[in-house]
Amino acid sequence: MSIYNTLLDKQDQLAVIGLGYVGLPIALEFARRIRVIGFDINEERVQLMRQSIDPSKELEAAAFEGCDIHFTSSLDELKAARFYIVAVPTPVDEHNVPDLVPVLRASETIGKVIKPGDYVVFESTVYPGCTEEDCLPVIERLSGLKAGTDFKIGYSPERINPGDKHHTLRTIVKVVSGCDAESLENIAKVYELVVDAGVHRASSIKVAEAAKIIENTQRDLNIALMNELSIIFDKMGINTYEVLEAAGTKWNFLKFYPGLVGGHCIGVDPYYLTYKAAELGYASKVILSGRMINDGMGAYVARKILMHIIHYNGNVRESRVLIMGATFKENVSDIRNSKVADVVKELRNYSINVDVIDAYADSDEVHHEYGFSLAPAATGTYDAILLAVAHEPYATMQTAEFEALLKPHGMIADLKGILRNKGVNCTYWSL
Prior knowledge:
Rossmann fold; 5-stranded parallel beta sheet; single chain; N-(1-d-carboxylethyl)-l-norvaline Dehydrogenase, domain 2; 13 strands; alpha/beta
């Protein structure tokens, strides 16, 4: 009997290793059809999930209802599974070098629990070749088993979009791959249990890994183009959003917009590809150029605000800036790789007093990650307001509410252009 059938009959269990933004939604979806073990090394997070609380604040308690799932941090309990999905993060370090520690540690965990006949599928974003060249040897070394003969391995890139209630695991086509034809078919059938949009069977694990990398690299490059155009148009006195509206009337114009590029995917994944390319003797040109532009946008925004303050307030040390939004995108609590932190750092390097507020982020998490805390609320008046993240509570504010927080010479820097054409009665600037 195939692994698909034994899972469906609930004779065997599926385990998800890593229950963050990616892993928990996957685990809960599977748990509506089959028996699931949700494994995370953080016992505090495990305790919260046992109480139907999502530590990432993405899912409501109702998402846990009707799920046949056991949350644990115990290796002994993890051994009961026969189909393992690895969904741990794959960040880059301070030098933009891929940090494979989480995925290699997950591979060590697999190596300690895997048995003959088991399946392992990685969902973590990696460069082409990582699953077979870096992760697989760890599993084989610790288990004493041989891939393809004793157990099967595959790769299925995650496509979770935090905060998006429309594009979910069920509604997005899932790319799957396996180490051979048998594993590919079984892995595909297992994912078809929870993906209504269907699955795409990639010809190899490397193809599936590469597909994931270029999805986000393509977006990164297009946003980099918009950011560079914004810098150029600013020098020309042209509003970028008006230009994009006009150009967007053509049927084949791609609608991308300028902005700070953060988060766990777009600002990170291209570095995995360029790292592997460098290992193979090729120095990326286009991809790294886009990364350079996007990574520099925080400093660019900060300098625009600084120039305004210098012009209207001779004493920079007494100036105040309010930054609204600290997460990497609107209406989520996710602060991973938020480029708002770059703006804060740059402004404080100029001795400017900065208050940061956010309707969704946790102040302790922000302080732990970036070294500054969130202010409970805006207080007094400011030389400039940076509307950095278009959270709904900020996007629905009236212009008069912003103006009431400004000094007479104050400036609004509106990165998303949400106040454009709303009759702002002060100095206004947007990307």
